[in-house]
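Preliminary data (for renewal application), zinc ion complex.
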Amino acid sequence: MQYSLPPDKLQRAVDYAHAGYALHFGSELLSIAILAAIIVTGLGAKFRDWAEAASKRRFIQAMIFIPLLLIFNDLLYLPANIYGQHLELKFDQSIQTWPSWLWDWTKTELIALVCAIPLAFLLYAVIRRSPRRWWLHFWLATLPVIAAVMYLEPMIIEPMFYRFQPLAEQHPVLVDQLEALVGRAGLSIPRDRMFEMKASEKVNSLNAYVSGFGGSRRVVVWDTTLDKLTTPETLFVFGHEMGHYVLNHIRNSLLLLALALLALFWAGSHIVRRLVPDVSDWTSLPVLLLIVAIASAIAEPVVNSYSRWQEHQADLYALEITHGTVPTAAAAHSFQVMGEIGLDEPNPNPFIVFWLYSHPSTSSRFDLAQRYRQPD
Ligand SMILES: [Zn+2]
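Predicted structure:
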């Protein structure tokens, strides 16, 4: 047995995947082109002039310059977002109405502004005070900010887009079984750390995830998953998320992100110094963002390879922890169901897997589940 799709779904999966790859690389080029255009046309300088004409105070300037730059940039990028949502609708991944989608986009913009204005103000305050070593000082300043955002995200940001409720509210029997599974591992994930997300209001796809860390760490299962998987299959999916939880994948990713940012800020500070005459001027921001955009496009396969490795660890953990509780056929079948609904290509191009896949391919995960034997 292997992961496979019926012929009609197979063609749709291939079409969906190809459109997605084009969208992905097209969006990357688009975001680079927009920033380059803002720099080359002098629009960034114009925004800076308006901000400086309005006030001598730097924070007021940030409150004008940042929204102008961010909103202009994101409006030009909006067609890519719209095309992405169009694909989600066309391939039955999303059922969200356009007004609801646009409202989510608007909320995302507002959250970005609330975060970006103080961060940019801080960045330029640090650059002015320490023109040569700002990369180090700004990095130190961003660490608690990143930690705070990751901590608060599940409590503040996620509920702005989806409704959550304790998993035990509508699925007390399942939670009993999950607790037994958790107990088997000699661990404890308290009931109040298990949530159900009402994803079915917007999407068809299945998922579960772990978010937050420390006091906000939690396991979230989408209601679509609970609806479409059998109980043993759900236990297996939960086992995978438990793997992320107990193997501290979020904390580890956070530590690596911090290291990557240090390297990025250091390299960025050296590059930007050669490109702009006065780094402390607001117009250096689109240049810095351009450097970040190019660096993240290059770092993509590294980030995704690391992610695939973590996902593989979580799969192994799930197979271990559910051994004897969930038949391996059920584990494999959960990938079949998720793959069919998510229209996962059975034979993705290896380069695409290497470059873009955050998870191992559904075929290889199905295969792993089926081959897996607990060592005696
Ligand atoms: Zn995972």
